[in-house]
Amino acid sequence: MADLAKRRLFSRGQTIALVELPWRDKSVSFTDVCTRCGECVSACETQIIVKGDGGFPTLDFNQGEGECSFCQQCAAVCPEPLFDLSQPEPWQLKAQIKDTCLANQKVYCRSCGEHCDSQAISFKPGISSVPIITAADCSGCGACLSVCPVQAIVLGQPK
Ligand code: SF4
Ligand code: SF4
Ligand code: SF4
Question: Which atom of ligand 1 is nearest to the CA of 59?
């Protein structure tokens, strides 16, 4: 079976879903090993893990608290060898701003910056300047995704 857990971002209307879990062991084919038991769905403290395509766990940043707290509960409760908590980072994903950001239309927003606890989002001086992500400061928590009114932020591999 194809490894559906390869990074894949998609948007279904208001859904911001990511077929990925933190600390996933990339050497293991997720869909071959995951039994779809749902233990991680129940354990997620911010309630962002849902059953997605084929019943496999998927992150939906429009659910629950809309961000990953990196509590490690998903990895801790999973009965299968799908996670590697010895990795220095839960994942390499960083927030990225798409061209549809309202600032490109000279509309004032800054909602993303107001919700980033890591202060990884800054704005050039000016009323409607485009947000800038400082990748080194971004944990990839996803808190900025669901608060964007036009879904102009995604999590992706750094370019
Ligand atoms: S680390 Fe915690 S908050 Fe993040 S997806 Fe896993 S269970 Fe949910
Ligand atoms: S707990 Fe593990 S095996 Fe069960 S659905 Fe989640 S990732 Fe798959
Ligand atoms: S993903 Fe989290 S840390 Fe990164 S810019 Fe968004 S809110 Fe800030």
Answer: 5
| Residue 87 token pair | 């990795």
| Predicted TM-score (pTM) of this structure | 0.87
Domains of the chain are 9-77 (3.30.70), 94-156 (3.30.70.20)
**Residue 128 identity (one-letter amino acid):** S
- Tell me: the pLDDT tens digits for 44-99? 999 999 999 899 999 999 999 999 999 999 999 999 999 999 999 999 999 999 99
Atom of ligand 2 nearest to the CA of 49: 6
- Residues in CB range of 30: below 8 A, 6 or more apart: 3, 4, 5, 24, 56, 82
Asked whether 60 and 48 are in contact (CB, 8 A), the reply is: yes
